[in-house]
Amino acid sequence: MARRRQLYEGKAKILFEGPEPGTLVQYFKDDATAGNGTKKGIITGKGVLNNRISEYLMLRLAEVGIPNHFVRRLNMREQLIREVEIIPLEIVVRNVAAGSICTRLGIPEGTRLPRSIIEYYYKNDALGDPIVAEEHITAFGWANTMDMDDIVAMTLRTNDFLTGLFLGVGITLVDFKLEFGRLWEGEDMRVVLADEISPDNCRLWDAKTNEKMDKDRFRRDLGRVEEAYQEVAKRLGILPEAGMRDMKGPELMQ
Questions:
Q1: H or E element: which one contains 7?
Q2: pLDDT for the residue 34
Q3: Are 240 and 55 in contact (CB under 8 A)?
Q4: All domains of the chain, ordered by start, with CATH?
Q5: Residue 1: what pLDDT?
Q6: Contacts for 188-191 with beta carbons within 8 Å, 24 or more apart?
């Protein structure tokens, strides 16, 4: 079968032309990066697990009224998504101090924050995805005030829902990153959740032991990275068909 036309390749995913207008196929890779791409490696089976985990979480979020770009999973490594105009921002929600906030503000890792904090980062690899304020976002036209109102409201609802969902399976949602896009339907536009939600862009700790169950195990050379991703999937009740077998590659849907 003919291969699909590739439109974009990122650090963890590849986007292909979709089978219908206004759709894309999102392919999940096993590639892992850290330190803005300075550290690279492979986490065996990561793409399969992230595909299933993100599918599950996007469907659950849609059930509670948070719109997103997910349509359906196509196979072990691919999902059909709606094509959106990505807003060039990474929205980071922090519930517990970890990562860069500890370095920037001198807060000990593991400190529970007084309230959930939302941070904005400008998506630009060449600049290292710098932290920005809402003033920068609206002044430079990356998003307008109505977009930001929608983004903040959906972000807070997503945090509330995911915090409870993960706590129910014994996992603390320490922090996570979201991306949003503009979905055009004729002349109408709405902002929807995009990208993925997985251990690649969430910090997930065991609620009892604080053991890390996310990409920090790769970043910090803690080992047992694959096992951590599998444990998250196991607790969510997600078991890929045919185990962890790999896919040969994306092919055209007939």
A1: strand 6-9
A2: 87
A3: no
A4: 6-84+225-235 (3.30.200.20), 85-206 (3.30.470.20)
A5: 40
A6: 190/67, 190/150, 191/87, 191/147, 191/150, 191/151, 191/154
CA distances to 40, 138, 199, 253 from 219, rounded to whole Å, are 9, 33, 12, 36
Distance of CA 84 to the CA centre of its chain: 15
**Residue 58 token pair:** 């996007």
CA distances from 104 to 34, 72, 99, 123 (A): 18, 39, 9, 19
Backbone angles phi, psi at 247, to 5 degrees: -105, 145
Nearest-angstrom CA–CA distance, 55 and 52: 5
Q: Which residues of the chain have pLDDT under 70?
A: 1-2, 239-254
Quick one: tokens of 120? 């904005």
For residue 185, what pLDDT is reported?
Answer: 87
